[in-house]
Design goal:
alpha/beta; 11 helices; about 45% helix; 7 strands; about 270 residues; binds zinc ion; Collagenase (Catalytic Domain)
Length: about 270
């Protein structure tokens, strides 16, 4: 882990509470058009884009976007972040991102220095560089530098990653198992994810250079967040590696990203 970057200051996370930044930024047309030209949005038809735009405006109204560590937030940055964030919930009911307000953005990676609880409930002191952080019931933190690298179909999207943690946290601690929709089979979800997680851990532990970012082996929660990134950014990679996980995510996100991107004939081709 690099030990550079701005230290995450807990006070930064409260800053926008005092100037009530909720809804401070309206959709920026230039940033919106630039976002829509990115490969991750390829294949969305006019109706879907209009819906995405409305939901993006809704998210901008609902959240308080603020800069920290010297970053000056503006409508263009907030629009870019909101557009990425809305993509996963485009076909879900409203409300999946409710219950928290703050989106705090640092210029680059920030240092998380503090207490963190592991899966067994033991609290450790940790210090590491982060490109994003989603706090249960609290703020979502992003590195702007990493946001700028997202959307290019390379399997990486820090916004989708952190918002996926927020989806996962809707039924308690992030554990890789968000609330499932009616008609989804919880046993199938558990089986498919455990098999993929175990397989990836085994391959990474064995020294294999995997197509999937090995950060997914940190925990089942990270596995869900990282594979959600691939689902939207590089679904062909996820489908080739773990087709059953891909199938579960089609049911969860109610989108067939691979079919959509193939139809668009973009970077994935056929
Ligand atoms: Zn994560």
């Amino acid at each position: 882990m690099r030990d550079t970057g701005t230290r995450l200051n807990p006070l930064d996370l409260l800053a926008s509470l005092f100037d009530s930044g909720r809804g401070a930024y309206k959709l920026d047309e230039v940033a919106w058009r630039a976002a829509m030209a990115l490969p991750v949005f390829d294949g969305l038809d006019e109706t879907a884009r209009l819906h995405l735009r409305e939901r993006t405006q809704g998210l901008l109204a609902d959240k308080a976007f603020s800069g920290a560590g010297g970053l000056e937030m503006d409508a263009a940055m907030a629009t870019t972040i909101a557009a990425f964030a809305v993509l996963p919930v485009l076909n879900l009911e409203e409300g999946w991102y409710s219950g928290w307000v703050e989106v705090v953005v640092y210029p680059g990676e920030f240092i998380f220095d503090g207490e963190q609880m592991d899966e067994t409930g033991v609290v450790h002191h940790v210090r590491h560089a982060r490109s994003g952080e989603a706090m249960a019931g609290g703020p979502l933190v992003l590195s702007w530098q990493d946001v700028q690298g997202a959307g290019r179909g390379e399997g990486f999207n820090v916004v989708i990653h952190e918002f996926a943690h927020k989806l996962d946290m809707r039924n308690g601690e992030a554990n890789g198992r968000p609330p499932l929709h009616a008609g989804m089979d919880p046993a199938a979800w558990a089986e498919v994810w455990l098999a993929a997680y175990d397989d990836l851990c085994r391959r990474v532990d064995g020294g294999e250079v995997t197509q999937i970012d090995p950060y997914a082996t940190e925990s089942p929660a990270e596995c869900f967040a990282v594979l959600s990134e691939y689902f939207f950014e590089a679904p062909h990679v996820l489908h080739a590696e773990y087709p059953e996980v891909y199938g579960q995510l089609v049911q969860f996100y109610r989108q067939d990203t691979l079919a959509r991107l193939r139809q668009a004939g973009g970077i994935i081709g056929t």
